[in-house]
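Predict structure. Chain length: 426.
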Amino acid sequence: MEKKIKIGLIGLGTVGTGVVKVLKNFDNIEIKGVAVHNINKPREVEVSNLTDDPYKLVNDPEIDIIVEVIGGCNPALDIIETAIKNGKHVVTANKELLARHGAYIFDLANKYNKVILYEAAVAGGIPIITPIKTTMRVNEFESVAGILNGTTNYILTKMEEEGLSYKDCLKKAQDLGYAETNPTSDVEGYDAMYKIATLANIAFNKRIDINKIFKEGITKITKEDIDFANELGYKIKLIGLARKTENGKIDVRVHPMLVEKDNPMAKIGNALNAVLVKGHPIGEVVFSGPGAGEFPTASSVAGDILIIASELNKYDEILPMARCNHTEFANQVDILDTENSYYISITAKNIHGTIGYIGTICGKNHINILSILQKGLSSDHKSARIIVITEKCFEKDIQNAVKELENIGENDEKFISINNIIRVME
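Prediction complete.
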């Protein structure tokens, strides 16, 4: 009889519950123990071997694989570190841990000849890590871009479809369980930042410093921005982007982008996720599907468990293609040195020469204007909304121009204020 692979499950929240349900269908896997914070809490699944001490599982010599689905870095980092030192392989869905401490734990895993798999950490149920590491390994990747957070994608979709404000759509997302009571990680871009860091790491075989990633969330996006973008042929999405520049540097960032309506990313609505990979020889490939939830995420976690189980006790070194074999940190690009096209929303006083001022200052800062639109006057005719779309230019030039524009005025009375700046996806 085939020996059962024994796992220790750390966490029995939404994802952990899904993992228990999925693994019941596999006779070769035994959940030997489950560690939870509160063993008396009512649960969807019956688990007889609960403990409130994760180290009871991590130190159990019979357990082969530790599955960590509690999130965060404390105590997850110490749990995984101890598990590896105790000779156990690891499956995790912890995007923050990988982004902040991946270099350390992957080096540790290599030292102890153990494997860490993390398909669920980037896009929930979408298989993307394994394809990049295996079947797409022949490619020279140009870029990886993704809608990596379902909460923000849901909010932006509802702002467009229902004409609601950001605040109203956030409340709706919270009521439906898509957004946490404290939504900071999602709406300020932290969640997407952790995920794009991991994608960049594996696509370019370079370690990514998350402290050098430019991050901007969706809290400044207004219903008017959504409407103007739609009129101009775009949708607004929160995009995690990692791309290789001509000089070999890596440009990694997260921020809202105007996405042309014929771009596959523009068609990803509600809480779905998508990852767009460009490379040679494959060209352009899109992976899309549910990026969170009980069963989609559990599917990826359970899949990683089965991959390890299929090779365990058969080879001295299992899954060599799944391991981290690079140690060099990327030379990352500062956002000020990036080139983009821009959408700039301006409120200006209704005085002669305002559009001329805008054109002059843009020209002075090496910015070519692709189009400039006046979107009518306010009800009192004292101000107007102006939308500027630029050609590609440097971020630092845009920032300099914005400062100059906001200083235009007479007798300390300013004529122009900048409502929002949104970069355009290539």
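Summary: Residues 213 and 355 are 34 Å apart (CA to CA).
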